[in-house]
Amino acid sequence: MDFSQLFSISGKTALVTGGSRGIGEMIAAGFLASGCKVYISSRKADVCEATAARLAREYGGECIALPADLSTVVGAQALAAELAKREQRLDILVNNAGASWGAPIDEFPENGWDKVMDTNVKGVFFLTQKLLPLLRVAGDADDPARVINIGSVDGLQSSQFDVFSYGASKAAVHHLTRFLAAHLTRENIICNAIAPGPFPTWMLSTGVGFGGATEDVDWESVGNANPRGRVGTAEDIAGLAIYLCSRAGAYVVGETICCDGGSVNTA
């Protein structure tokens, strides 16, 4: 047995949605540093392209921006078609693009519900569906293609914030992951989910009152409430994603794995 390449993902091609910032950017950076060719997608073309250029400079390799709105089936189809023009196979799909909405229960609007569900659940399913031809080509019995859906601890427990559609959507993502695994594993496409806890992202920043800023703000105060005493880092989330996409994770199927410093399981 040769364990020297157990965690290698070098030479693979990956698509990370919501890759222009936050957890998606962290995973994309880890993939690039590990020798992957990485496509990132987000709604805002200028931001997506700027992030792709910066990640390529910082970590080397190829990082290519493919902007898309994944809240619609048309957007998912367009992204899949654009990728198919460039690649004959896709080894890794990370469904990370997401949205949230906060409002008191008596005032929570329908558009806040629909926006979150469309992006976080419908987008995950239909992008995966549209990319199945490329994933099927990539996967084989020894090295299956990988799909990682980014859920949340808010899909496993109640949140302190009034994000009703977000929590429900992430619970749906976790269960959808099991459904996808049940249907795709024998096609050499294995699906898992990651449920992140607190990370220094724009989304969490808006929730804790930092106004969306991720630098030069008091993340230590947020981390102090976590059992590990800190918020997550790029190494934490990218490390788990790399594991799931490597030979080391090839027998892990249909799981939702917390990456949360213990906030769920030690509460």
TrEMBL record:
Pfam family, one: adh_short_C2
Keyword list, A-Z: NADP, Oxidoreductase
InterPro entries to which the protein is assigned, alphabetical: NAD(P)-bd_dom_sf (IPR036291), Sc_DH/Rdtase_CS (IPR020904), SDR_fam (IPR002347), Sec_Metab_Biosynth_SDR (IPR052178)
Family, per entry: Belongs to the short-chain dehydrogenases/reductases (SDR) family.
Protein name: SDR family oxidoreductase
Organism expressing this protein natively: Candidatus Marimicrobium litorale
